[in-house]
């Protein structure tokens, strides 16, 4: 379902737009630019902006392992285009979803947030996992489909076409900005 409205207390969650991951992501430049536009618009309305980075992985064996010990020193640094501000909330995760073992839920509930807009990388992993968790926790979820990308186009398309409609509403950056402009302050 296309996005219809934004709640008065909506937060932006930007997933893993950090140097180490953006360097590997296709179309990252356009995704970063759109996420930066969303962040600036949310800040201008004094709406919460959450910037999420990943600094590890959940324990356990997988066929495609990810081990933080072999990563470059600047792997977790946010891309400068996001223009992190003092009021932004930084979340460092060690699992796919941003709510697991972090303070994100308490922070959003403490600020009265009822809806989240999610953007970032990777559509089928960090973005989708965070969207699933947000939905299960009772948040209204909007997914900025042109402000996200995946390492594989088919994985991105699967999430956008098959999974996201079951978790919330989807919209482009411009559509979300228009809704944000129309939302009461």
Q: How would you summarize what this structure contains?
A:
The chain is of the alpha/beta class. The protein has helices at about 20, 30-45, 105-110, 125-135, 155-165, 175-180; strands at about 10-15, 50-55, 90-95, 115-120, 140-150, 170. β5, α5 and β6 form a beta-alpha-beta unit.
Query: From the coordinates shown, what is the CATH architecture?
Result: 3-Layer(aba) Sandwich
Rg on CA atoms, Å: 15 Å
CATH superfamily: Isochorismatase-like
Unreliable spans: none
CATH topology tier name: Rossmann fold
Strand content: 15-25%
Outline? globular
Number of strands: 6
Helix and strand topology:
Layout: E1 10-15, H1 19-22, H2 28-44, E2 49-54, E3 89-93, H3 104-110, E4 115-121, H4 123-136, E5 140-149, H5 153-167, E6 169-171, H6 173-182
Parallel strand pairs: 1-2, 1-4, 2-3, 4-5, 5-6
Helix pairs in contact: 2-6, 4-5
Defining traits:
Isochorismatase-like_dom; Nicotinamidase-related amidase; alpha/beta; hydrolase activity; 185 residues; Isochorismatase-like_sf; hydrolase; Rossmann fold; single chain; 6 helices
Structure overview:
- The protein has 185 residues and is α/β, with parallel strands linked by helices.
- The chain has one domain: 3-Layer(aba) Sandwich (Rossmann fold), CATH 3.40.50.850.
- It has 6 helices and 6 strands.
- A 6-stranded parallel beta sheet has the order 3-2-1-4-5-6.
- Helix 4 runs parallel beside helix 5.
- The longest helix is centred in the first third of the chain and has 17 residues.
């Amino acid at each position: 379902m296309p996005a219809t409205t934004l709640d008065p207390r909506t937060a932006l969650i930007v997933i893993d737009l950090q140097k180490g991951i953006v360097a590997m992501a296709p179309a990252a430049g356009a995704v970063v630019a759109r996420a930066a536009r969303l962040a600036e618009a949310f800040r201008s309305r004094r709406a919460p902006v959450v910037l999420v980075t990943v600094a590890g992985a959940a324990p356990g064996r997988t066929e495609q392992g990810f081990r933080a010990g072999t990563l470059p020193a600047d792997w977790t640094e946010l891309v400068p285009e996001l223009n992190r501000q003092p009021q932004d909330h930084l979340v460092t995760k060690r699992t796919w979803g941003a709510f697991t073992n972090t303070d994100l839920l308490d922070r959003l509930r403490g600020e009265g947030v009822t809806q989240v807009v999610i953007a970032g990388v990777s559509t089928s992993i960090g973005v989708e996992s965070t969207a699933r968790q947000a939905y299960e926790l009772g948040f209204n979820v909007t997914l900025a489909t042109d402000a996200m990308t995946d390492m594989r186009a088919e994985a991105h398309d699967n999430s956008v076409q098959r999974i996201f409609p079951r978790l919330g509403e989807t919209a482009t950056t411009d559509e979300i900005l228009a809704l944000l402009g129309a939302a009461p302050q």
